């Protein structure tokens, strides 16, 4: 059973970097075969999103610099960096190595990329917290997000973002506990068919196919919407309940439920099953769309900024999706540093 | 400073899966990128690579899967006891989803399984081991597999070519929790100023 | 679990379609209002009312409302 619990690590701050360039879905003429633009927005909850030509590291660097500056952390004091992305700057080398250099971190820095999406922030957090808990590493950055893809990408549900979560070792800091899971039988529920070793890139990888009224090439991701929906509404609530039962706490007592931002209706159902009122379930979909592994921290940093920077907040966060993979984390944040949203020009 | 140490983790076993095809650097074929600077004998002498395993079909996960099935059987582990897979590769099955998720299903492991892909190359086993060891050390996860390797690439080039320095392999390292095992110690470093020392700049030779 | 109740729960997912139009033998994907969003509502309904998980193939393979009812019943 993948339950983890670690003490002595605290979230010190969070920042968000997004492209300055916005697209409003009201301006998209051919947004869907079922709906006009206004209905699409009503149904999906995505009014606008940030996209462009910036890569994950382009968005992460300014966000990290701002956060480090406001935290007062010297660059050489950072000893660990994990980048969670499924669209890194290059196939090889890892984006974390590039960010190590561009940020000006010390060479005595552990840096690695984890390839996960919707569940990525929770998994990334578990990997760093695990390394820090016994004092091995003291100050680490978790960078999550997807930005510019390898090929053209204009799905009206998705937006680009990179978030930076700063973690520090602190004796006595309250437990952070995790529940994690995987179901690889759903591997093709959200998938890019070509571009990995299984289906190599060939000239036919660039030829569009029609799926449900939209065109996709084998290098663009596609989703089995109904399967992902039924997975989400069953797995997410179960994961939260399992976590609470295993560690013996009352999940309804938490201040906020922060879910991966993929589908408003799905999240409303999950919240209802877990008995969280809508005002305790923040969302960032309206302005940012689905931002992949950045969605949970982006929601915290933009929607819960006031309470997290000025007090103690107990958060229950659940990321679920591509893989199929899921993770729930229960943690406290107290008086953390959250800079203004960082908007980056191309 | 990136020094880490973790107690209570034992390496229970190691296995490697390789393709059956052997390419000999002494007798290069039409697939091998032959250097015009060296004769085959000199190349072998300079590089130390006499032969390597290759396949145009088997992916890293295919090789890791075969190695893992064998190792799990030899260890006498129940599939349901395995609580984590860390897959380290720069040649995963797909851009997304993560290959570790696919392996969870293919190996018949429980859904209550921690899975993550790490994208690193030469330093990858050490990083992957670090994560695996960290997960087991606290006693939360009792048995974890670190699957590591590189094989078939992501691009079908117009003309098939093999690099005479590289061979395909998928390995598995089985980790288990055991009280009292002395610490495994790690040191890590990164120098991103060398990012283009080993790089795939873009996809080429695909569109003629 | 009664077919009549299932039909009622199914019809409740539609906003603009008269409930009387939706019967056991209705080929639901041919209804004007049918959309991918209503499909999601039906999946949600099956989960909420019957604790049954429907997937894409279950919706694709059912022609009539009664087909769907039988599918849900078989999973209970």
Strand proportion of chain C: under 5%
What is the count of distinct domains of chain A? 2
Indicate the percent of residues in helices of chain C: 40-55%
Tell me the strand percentage band of chain A. 25-35%
CATH superfamily of the largest domain in chain A: Thiolase/Chalcone synthase
Radius of gyration of chain A: 19 Å
C-alpha end-to-end distance of chain C: 9 Å
Class from secondary-structure proportions of chain A: alpha/beta
What is the CATH H-level superfamily of chain C?
ACP-like
Number of strands of chain A: 17
CATH architectural type of the largest domain in chain A = 3-Layer(aba) Sandwich
Task: Output the CATH class name of the largest domain in chain A.
Answer: Alpha Beta
Mean pLDDT of chain C comes to 92
Oligomer: heterotrimer
Largest sheet composition of chain C? none
Percent in helix of chain A: 25-40%
Give the helix tally of chain A: 9
CATH structural class of chain C: Mainly Alpha
Brief synopsis:
By secondary structure, chain B is α/β, with parallel strands linked by helices. Chain B is built from four helices and nine strands. In chain C, 28% of the residues are buried.
Protein architecture, described:
- The complex is a heterotrimer of chains A (346), B (208) and C (76).
- Chain A has 346 residues and is α/β, with parallel strands linked by helices.
- In chain A, 28% of the residues lie in helices and 27% in strands.
- In chain A, the strands form 5 sheets. Chain A has a 6-stranded mixed beta sheet, sandwiched between helices.
- Chain B is an alpha/beta fold.
- In chain B, 22% of the residues lie in helices and 25% in strands.
- In chain B, β5 (84-88), α3 (99-106) and β6 form a beta-alpha-beta unit.
- Helix content of chain C is 53%, strand content 0%.
- Classes of the chains: A alpha/beta (346), B alpha/beta (208), C mainly alpha (76).
- Chains A and C meet through α5 and α6 of A and α2 of C.
- β6 of chain A pairs antiparallel with β6 (114-119) of chain B, so a sheet runs across the interface.
